[in-house]
């Protein structure tokens, strides 16, 4: 079970960067304007990786106007060097750029700070708190203590992936540098509200109790993404291992899919139709939204778009 957690991922990244210069107990300041710069200040440069031959990349055309849809893996892939040049050429030639939410929003980290007066260290058992600190480091755990559990789960989810600049941030910076209009498909708050009910102390406990499973799943997800294997990536949406480990009702698993994928995908269709009507553009969202349940390409096809998964030369 993996959730699209761009906001919490980048919040955790900003927190890591802050830890290099701020005391552990000081509140994390807002991220700097460039999420790429934020990540770079907290992590070493990524090693060279092989180029992706079969990206999750689609065209959706209606009335002669085309949207190009790229499925991203928010962290773990170096967009600048691993995406094939023909994909980046489509971005460079696009009229506009769209992505899930504004990852440069200075309120991003603030929205992840708890307002209920509680601390994660109080909600976890002493054993789990100790294990969390051993897993991600004392300083980061202490910094996340006053944030929504969402941010801690995101940090655990990416700990086994290559430390690359977020794909979304790299593509956003490229679009902004070219002066393209930027469209955000949902607000930061909307994304947090959709995912937070499924990110609790119980979910952190389940993740900590299954670290080896999480390690294996993260690497498999990366492998499936790099291979462009939609069927394999799709199969991950049916994995209830951590859901059950958190003590959740298996009959309610559909609620998670509905909130984090189905409803969000549906809410994006109107702005994407308007983007197409205005002349088309390039859209970068988590790959789960392009191949998972009630995915965006299928929804656009139902609205009269001609949709095609693209390969080199298209």
Overall tally of structural domains:
1
Helix content: 40-55%
Unreliable runs: 1-5, 16-46
User: What structural class do you assign from the helix and strand content?
Assistant: alpha/beta
What is the ordering of alpha helices and beta strands? HHEEHHEHHHHHHEHHHHHHEHHE
Question: Mean pLDDT score, rounded?
Answer: 86
Radius of gyration: 19 Å
Work out the helix count: 18
Strand share of the residues?
A: 5-15%
Q: How many strands?
A: 6
Distance between the termini: 33 Å
Side-by-side strand order of the widest sheet: 4-3-5-2-1-6
> Globular, elongated, flat, extended or rod-shaped: what is the shape?
globular
The main sheet comes to:
6 strands, mixed
| Oligomeric form | single chain
Task: Give the helices and strands, then pairings.
Blueprint: H1 6-19, H2 35-42, E1 57-62, E2 65-72, H3 79-82, H4 85-93, E3 97-99, H5 108-112, H6 120-123, H7 126-136, H8 138-144, H9 149-158, H10 167-177, E4 182-184, H11 188-195, H12 201-209, H13 211-227, H14 230-235, H15 241-245, H16 253-277, E5 281-286, H17 288-291, H18 296-302, E6 306-309
Parallel strand pairs: 2-5, 3-4, 3-5
Antiparallel strand pairs: 1-2, 1-6
Helix pairs in contact: 1-2, 1-8, 1-9, 7-8, 9-12
Summarize this entry quickly.
This protein is of the alpha/beta class and 314 residues long. The chain contains 18 helices and six strands.
Commentary on this structure:
With about 325 residues, the protein is α/β, with parallel strands linked by helices. It has one domain (about 5-310). About 50% of the residues lie in helices and about 10% in strands. The chain has 18 helices and six strands. It has helices spanning about 5-20, 35-40, 80, 85-95, 110, 120-125, 125-135, 140-145, 150-160, 165-175, 190-195, 200-210, 210-225, 230-235, 240-245, 255-275, 290, 295-300; strands at about 55-60, 65-70, 95-100, 180-185, 280-285, 305-310. A hairpin with a 2-residue loop joins strand 1 (about 55-60) and strand 2 (about 65-70).
């Amino acid at each position: 079970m993996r959730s699209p957690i761009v906001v919490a991922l980048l919040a955790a990244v900003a927190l890591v960067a802050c830890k290099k210069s701020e005391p552990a107990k000081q509140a994390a300041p807002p991220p700097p304007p460039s999420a790429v710069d934020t990540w770079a200040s907290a992590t070493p440069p990524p090693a060279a990786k092989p180029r992706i031959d079969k990206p999750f990349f689609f065209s959706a055309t209606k009335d002669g106007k085309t949207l190009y849809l790229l499925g991203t893996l928010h962290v773990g892939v170096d967009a600048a060097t691993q995406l094939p040049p023909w994909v980046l050429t489509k971005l460079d030639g696009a009229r506009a750029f769209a992505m899930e939410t504004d990852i440069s929003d200075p309120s991003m980290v603030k929205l992840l700070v708890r307002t209920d007066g509680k601390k994660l260290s109080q909600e976890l058992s002493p054993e789990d708190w100790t294990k969390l600190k051993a897993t991600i480091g004392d300083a980061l755990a202490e910094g996340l203590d006053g944030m929504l559990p969402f941010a801690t789960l995101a940090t655990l989810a990416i700990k086994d992936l290559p430390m690359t600049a977020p794909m979304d941030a790299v593509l956003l910076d490229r679009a902004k540098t070219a002066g393209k209009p930027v469209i955000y498909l949902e607000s930061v708050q909307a994304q947090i509200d959709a995912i937070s009910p499924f990110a609790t102390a119980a979910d952190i406990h389940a993740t900590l109790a299954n670290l080896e499973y999480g390690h294996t799943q993260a690497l498999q997800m990366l492998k499936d993404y790099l291979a462009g294997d939609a069927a394999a990536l799709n199969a991950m949406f049916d994995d209830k291992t951590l859901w059950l480990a958190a003590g959740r009702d298996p009959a309610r698993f559909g609620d998670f899919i509905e909130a984090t994928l189905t409803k969000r995908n549906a809410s994006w269709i109107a702005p994407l139709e308007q983007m197409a009507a205005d002349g088309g553009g390039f859209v970068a969202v988590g790959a789960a939204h392009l191949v998972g349940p009630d995915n965006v390409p299928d929804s656009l096809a139902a609205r009269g778009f001609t949709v095609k998964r693209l390969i080199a030369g298209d």
